[in-house]
Amino acid sequence: MTGCQQCALPLPVSPEADSALICGECLHNPPPFTHTSAAFRYLPPISDQITRFKHQRDLVAGRFLSTQLAQQLRLDYEYQAWPDAITAVPLHWQRQLWRGFNQAAYISRQLSLELKIPLLHCCRRKKATVKQQQLSRKQRLKNLRQSFEIMTNAKDLHLALIDDVMTTGTTARELSSILLKAGAKRVDVWVLARTPTPGT
Ligand SMILES: [Zn+2]
């Protein structure tokens, strides 16, 4: 998939174009993570498979999507070092109560097995006390930042942060920044799919 090297946003260029492509958003507001790999664009029919995996625990779809991501990663990391460990984005707090299944943790386990990279359970979500919908954008970001907690020593580690879909990249930015502040040396983001335009 041709996209921004940093956030994987699909860009309207041919695969033969310069490989060091960076999108406008990453140029103007550089994210703390170094690189994003995505196996797919978040469009039908892949988006339907992701929904079935996420909301109906369709593990056949989950395994297929994770294997496709592993194949994409083998290409993306042909000329760069693999991360030292894989870590999953903790389940978003607004979904935690009604959906016990963390799709990011499932993808992480599959990738760890396929790529032989250890899993590290280094972040968790703190209990949510405020309803996110009632907050302004600024308050939401603050709330998001305060909702993650680092449990394990991430010092000097190159980490891969796993999520199912990257939309605006806000969660990936916040969590990467927390991991880097905790001493991680580099954070990459691995997602099944990337939305074609930010915020959609
Ligand atoms: Zn970008």
Task: Report what the structure shows.
The chain is of the alpha/beta class and 200 residues long. It has one domain (30-194): Rossmann fold (3-Layer(aba) Sandwich), CATH 3.40.50. It is 36% helix and 18% strand. It contains 7 helices and 6 strands, in the order H-E-H-H-E-H-H-E-H-E-E-H-E. It has helices at residues 24-28, 46-56, 59-76, 93-96, 103-115, 137-146, 170-181; strands spanning 35-41, 85-88, 123-125, 148-150, 158-166, 186-194. A 4-stranded parallel sheet has the order 1-6-5-2. Strands 3-4 form a two-stranded antiparallel ribbon. Helix 2 crosses helix 3 (59-76) and helix 3 crosses helix 5. The mean pLDDT is 86. Zinc ion binds at residues 4, 6-7, 9, 22-23, 25-26.
Short overview:
Helix content is 36%, strand content 18%. It is built from 7 helices and 6 strands.
CATH architecture, by name, is 3-Layer(aba) Sandwich
Radius of gyration: 16 Å
Distance between the termini: 19 Å
Structural class assignment: alpha/beta
Compute the number of helices.
Answer: 7
In the CATH scheme, the class would be Alpha Beta
Task: Give the overall form.
Answer: globular
Q: What spatial order of strands do you see in the largest sheet?
A: 1-6-5-2
How would you sum up the major sheet? 4 strands, parallel
Q: What ligands does this structure carry?
A: zinc ion
Share of residues in strands: 15-25%
- Helix and strand pattern: HEHHEHHEHEEHE
